[in-house]
Design a protein that fits this description.
Chain B: Keywords: Signal. Chain A: Keywords: Signal. The complex is a heterodimer of chains A (142) and B (393). By secondary structure, chain A is of the alpha+beta class. Chain A has 3 helices and 2 strands; from the N terminus they run H-E-H-H-E. Chain A is 15% helix and 6% strand. In chain A, 41% of the residues are buried. In chain B, the strands form 5 sheets. In chain B, strands 1, 2, 3, 4, 5, 6, 7, 11, 12 and 15 form a 10-stranded mixed beta sheet that branches. In chain B, strands 8-13 form a two-stranded parallel sheet. In chain B, strands 9-10 form a two-stranded parallel sheet. Chain B folds into 3 domains: 176 residues, 3-Layer(aba) Sandwich (D-Maltodextrin-Binding Protein, domain 2), CATH 3.40.190.10; 145 residues, 3-Layer(aba) Sandwich (D-Maltodextrin-Binding Protein, domain 2), CATH 3.40.190; 60 residues, no CATH class. Chain B is 27% helix and 21% strand. Chain B is built from 12 helices and 19 strands. The chains are: A alpha+beta (142), B alpha/beta (393).
């Protein structure tokens, strides 16, 4: 069936504008976030930690001295169980590794869901991205 | 056509002219037995080439003709009502690319094909009345480095600085050399998608416009300063060229780790696209003239697009699901997440007739799903036998 066309451009423009004004929301130095995303996300205030603090490209977690790729959270032998009665509370669903172990229901939770896929954190730090603002937000484009 | 988009036309025409070997007159496209003419981006050419070859083997074969000046031309020609001219490609039964001449007076395209929604193209405020959008297979977008580069990952924020400020001004090592920052123009679906992911207005995207996906592969893969070189293409094009370039793992905003489209850097399973860990993906969209009931007007185009959407039964000789998977693209039936706006919020998705097990078996070479010959072989958790595997519904 043909698809209706909502005001995509308006949403895109709003997102770009939100970034251009410098990401007013509070952001950690490890995870740069555009404002306006996941405002209904119960996990927004709980910044995943763990291996996101790697300092050099190509390296991974502080507890991974080999510098090889890592995985986040559960493996196929240890899958997250969405049927365990969790409430979606970040305290209950975020693992120490920073992944989301409950059934994802928001964009951010999908992006950070526990998986046995290989990943490598990119450090969004001032060392790696010198033009980051002191508070970790993005400056407007020139 | 917007003024800015019109500025891209000479470049597109120049690229089109290079498709025909010099000194060789191509045959008229209109002389093909049953031509269906499309226009759009170069990202989808590998897929269309495979489909076009198979279309010769079906009853009432279709000659798929495609011109690829840039994704946004797949909608702007319908917006402007202009005709396409120059040369186009078609493929013989062996899949060999051929060139034909469009009429000097121009031809009306039967369909446009874009890797992003047409309304994201500059000058397209709305899809015109009488044109409908039909989502097709899913492609993902890869930021790529040379295989002689040590770089393995990148973040949306890094892309913001590199492509938003320019390599030198952006100061994200090692991508600090403007001459090694390869890009496209704002008619490119890859550029639009990556710009959306990073929060850069497409028209502000920096870098050297190399024109096509294949030129991007050459520019990055053959760079004399490979550590500094950065570019982007559709993932299926990157996959075809893993001997020279590699896809960088990508970390979206709000994401704490960078993922490849596949479960590892060397796999081909597209698992991270399918489950939402890899953010840079979008469906190919067909744009086609329709009647008042939303029915595609041209019967041959209706057949062709219908094969992709499921509106037409697949004929013998057209293993479209296998072609899509083998191409490195993803059928909608294998997706576990979906989104309603380009690079927008993800949500869980259950296709009407899931094919995730078959996808894994074919793309990754194996699956944990149970093989079956009929529903009776399947258990309650995955009760339907589809394409030889027990699926959830």
């Amino acid at each position: 069936m043909p698809i209706a066309h909502p005001t995509v451009r308006a949403r895109v423009a709003a997102r770009a504008l939100a970034l251009a004004v410098g990401l007013v929301g509070a952001c950690s130095s490890e995870q740069v976030e555009p404002p306006g995303d996941d405002t209904d996300d119960p996990a927004t205030s709980a910044t995943p930690t763990g291996n996101a603090t790697a300092t050099e490209p190509g390296t991974t977690t502080p507890d991974d001295p080999t510098g090889t790729s890592t995985t986040q959270g559960a493996t196929t032998d240890d899958p997250p169980d969405p049927t365990t009665g969790t409430t979606g509370d970040p305290a209950e669903c975020e693992t120490p590794e920073g992944c989301w172990s409950c059934t994802p229901t928001t964009h951010k939770q999908h992006l950070n869901a526990c998986t046995d896929a290989t990943c490598e954190p990119f450090p969004n730090t001032k060392d790696r991205l010198p033009l980051l603002e002191e508070d970790g937000t993005l400056p407007p484009l020139p | 056509m917007s003024l800015r988009l019109a500025l891209y036309v000479p470049l597109a025409a120049a690229l089109g002219l290079t498709l025909a070997p010099r000194g060789v007159l191509a045959a008229p496209c209109a002389d093909l037995p049953n031509p269906v003419i499309g226009i759009g981006g170069s990202a989808s050419k590998p897929l269309l080439a495979k489909v076009a070859a198979a279309l010769h083997a079906i009853d009432a074969p279709i000659d798929l003709v495609y011109q690829s000046p840039g994704a946004c031309f797949g909608i702007t020609y319908f917006v402007d009502g202009t005709k396409i001219t120059g040369t186009a490609n078609y493929w013989d039964a062996e899949g060999t690319e051929q060139t034909c001449d469009l009429p000097l007076t121009g031809a009306d395209p039967d369909f446009g094909m874009l890797g992003v929604k047409g309304t994201l193209c500059e000058g397209v405020d709305a899809i015109p009345d009488g044109i409908a959008e039909f989502p097709g297979p899913i492609t993902s977008w890869s930021l790529i480095a040379s295989n002689d580069s040590s770089q393995t990952n990148i973040s949306a924020a890094a892309v913001y600085f590199v492509y938003g400020f320019g390599a030198a001004l952006g100061q994200v090592a090692p991508w600090t050399v403007d001459a090694e920052l390869y890009s496209r123009n704002a008619t490119s679906a890859a550029l639009i998608a990556i710009a959306l992911g990073a929060g850069i207005p497409p028209t502000k995207f920096k870098g050297i416009d190399v024109g096509t996906n294949q030129a991007m592969i050459s520019s990055v893969g053959q760079s004399l300063n490979p550590e500094n070189a950065l570019g982007f293409v559709s993932t299926e094009v990157a996959d075809l060229n893993r001997d020279t370039v590699h896809t960088l793992a990508y970390q979206a905003y709000d994401q704490s780790c960078a993922y490849w489209p596949d479960s590892t850097a060397t796999a081909f399973d597209k698992r991270n696209v399918r489950d939402g860990h890899y953010d840079l993906w979008s469906p190919y969209n067909f744009y086609v003239p329709v009647d008042g009931d939303g029915e595609i007007i041209d019967p041959e185009t209706r057949r062709l697009v219908g094969f992709f959407t499921g509106a037409e039964p697949l004929p013998d000789g057209l293993p479209l699901l296998d072609i899509i998977i083998d191409n490195g693209t993803i059928p909608q039936c294998a997706m576990q997440v979906w989104r309603d706006e380009e690079i927008g919020p993800l949500y869980s998705f259950q296709p009407d007739a899931p094919c995730g097990c078959y996808f894994e078996a074919r793309a990754a070479g194996g699956t944990d799903c149970q093989a079956c010959a009929g529903d009776g072989d399947c258990g309650a958790d995955a009760p339907v036998c589809r394409h030889g595997y027990c699926e959830v519904i």
